[in-house]
Amino acid sequence: MSTDARARLAAIAIVAETPPAPSVGADSGNVPLLLGEIRHALERLLATGAVHAIDLRAIPLGPGEEDRLLEALGTGELCATFDALGRSELQECRYPGVWRITHWNAADELIGRFIEVTFAPALLASNREDIRDGLERLSAELSG
Amino acid sequence: MDALNIGGTVGEQLRAQGVSRRGFMKFCATTASLMALSPALVPRIAEALAGAKRPSVIWLPFQECTGCTESLTRSHAPTLESLIFGAISLDYHETLQAAAGHDAEAARNRAMEANWGEYFLAVDGSIPLGNKGYSTIGGVSNVDLLKRVAQGAKAIVAIGTCASFGGLPKASPNPTGAVAVRDLIKDKPIINVSGCPPLPMAITGVLAQVLTFGQLPELDHLGRPKAFYGQTIHDRCYRRPFYERGQFAESFDDEGAKQGWCLYKLGCKGPVTYNACPTMKWNLGASFPIESGHGCIGCSEPDFWDWQGVYRPLSTTRWGGYQTLGAAAAVGVAAGAVAALAARRKQRPVGEDEA
């Protein structure tokens, strides 16, 4: 590149701007709708025991909206984690019965985020097959 | 990579790898999400997947840029590794396999022979008909190889816009005489997973769905799975409220652009493009083009490259006069909805008259 061209390039003013605060309505408007859906699901859970799940990846959410939803749901008493094909976290929200379930893969990349409205997420319970395997292992150790 | 007749079910395979039932249920939950299915179906998916046999998959690359394979290898749920070793038996993929030359060809032939009539054929890239010598593998032309391998396939998954509709190689004046898989193969089920590249989750999601339910997913009029291509980018776009209010960015650096207003006037093809980018997003769910400030270019639609300009508004290209859009923008909600409807009604002919 010639000196002249470099000088012309250097003459282009570069200004770093701070992004403006988002204007009113600069989002999908889905956060209050999701909170409404969760409220209805809680009523149904109490009345009939019906479990409800929301896949946050299936909902159009603008920048920052998922964070605002999770902030609104807050953090409750119980948090459980397990490690199977990567880390998973089951966090009760500040509204009992509402759980935030987050899955990461083995490379610690976020692979799924769900809201479940339930007394306890099914993933918390030990499974029959695993219990059977464990029992066999324990029995073998005791007999060995 | 030469994983013929490994046998067993997906459930057995994962268990053999030491994956607990809890891990398997996690796998199913993320797979359901991947297939755009309700989380309520997870137990059914678990039951189906646990007993599903691992299908053999043969992947043929033709006139392509490897972008689709790049996309697949960035698929994060399930990981490519778990897909290959747990859910499918990827018996031939030139870019990913370790074998080369005669060994690779032999592996493909063995996979075909062992699974004749049962394997899935994945294709990326278009097929040149202008001169067979434009693209060959081991001295065999793309068209001959496709016809041979397709013969024994249970179904074909055309991955990317090139394999689905001809893509960039077919762009005017189409120097190689490029055609899509569906232009050559008429007697096998074909699933078009279009996009340049397709969403990685759409690629693995389709494979997972076929595996889970043992049948092809519901397809739209262009042969694309409705779970991913059932709605337009515009339908799912978080900027749509601005469109409804007639608030449009007029340039990439004006106040409207900074406020995140609708990019329709800057050439966004979201209203006529069917894909799941706004919800699935890219780069581990970080963003999608519109969220990053650029309009959709319509890459999952047939002949998008010949739509007379990435930055020209739809209304000034083939969708009517610019004045129509101006009126729609000015009047706002009602007119905006009409313009969207008009654009969507005109979407169908794009695929049909030019494909």
Model description:
With 144 residues, chain A is α+β, with helices and mostly antiparallel strands. Chain A is built from four helices and five strands. A five-stranded antiparallel beta sheet of chain A has the order 1-5-4-3-2. In chain A, helix 2 packs parallel to helix 3. Chain B has two domains: 10-228, 3-Layer(aba) Sandwich (Rossmann fold), CATH 3.40.50.700; 233-354, Cytochrome-c3 Hydrogenase, Chain A, domain 2 (Irregular), CATH 4.10.480.10. In chain B, a hairpin with a 2-residue loop joins strand 5 (136-137) and strand 6. Chain B is of the alpha/beta class and 355 residues long. Classes of the chains: A alpha+beta (144), B alpha/beta (355).
Highlighted features:
heterodimer; A: 144 residues; alpha+beta; Ribosomal Protein S8, Chain: A, domain 1; five-stranded antiparallel beta sheet; 4 helices; B: 355 residues; alpha/beta; Rossmann fold; Cytochrome-c3 Hydrogenase, Chain A, domain 2; 2 domains; five-stranded parallel beta sheet; two-stranded antiparallel ribbon; 10% strand; disordered N terminus; disordered C terminus
By CATH, the architecture of chain A is named 2-Layer Sandwich
Strand content of chain A: 15-25%
Summed over residues and divided by their number, the pLDDT of chain B gives a mean of 80
Secondary structure: helix percent of chain B: 40-55%
Overall number of structural domains of chain B? 2
Taking the sheet with the most strands of chain B, its summary is: 5 strands, parallel
- The CATH class of chain A turns out to be Alpha Beta
Radius of gyration of chain A: 24 Å
Order of helices and strands of chain A: HHEHEEEEH
Q: What characterizes the major β-sheet of chain A? A: 5 strands, antiparallel
CATH level-3 fold name of the largest domain in chain B: Rossmann fold
Number of helices of chain A: 4
Measured distance between first and last alpha carbons of chain A: 78 Å
Overall geometric form of chain A: flat
Give me the secondary-structure category of chain B: alpha/beta
Name the overall outline of chain B. globular
Across the major sheet of chain A, the strand order is 1-5-4-3-2
Q: How are the strands of the largest sheet of chain B arranged?
A: 2-1-3-7-9
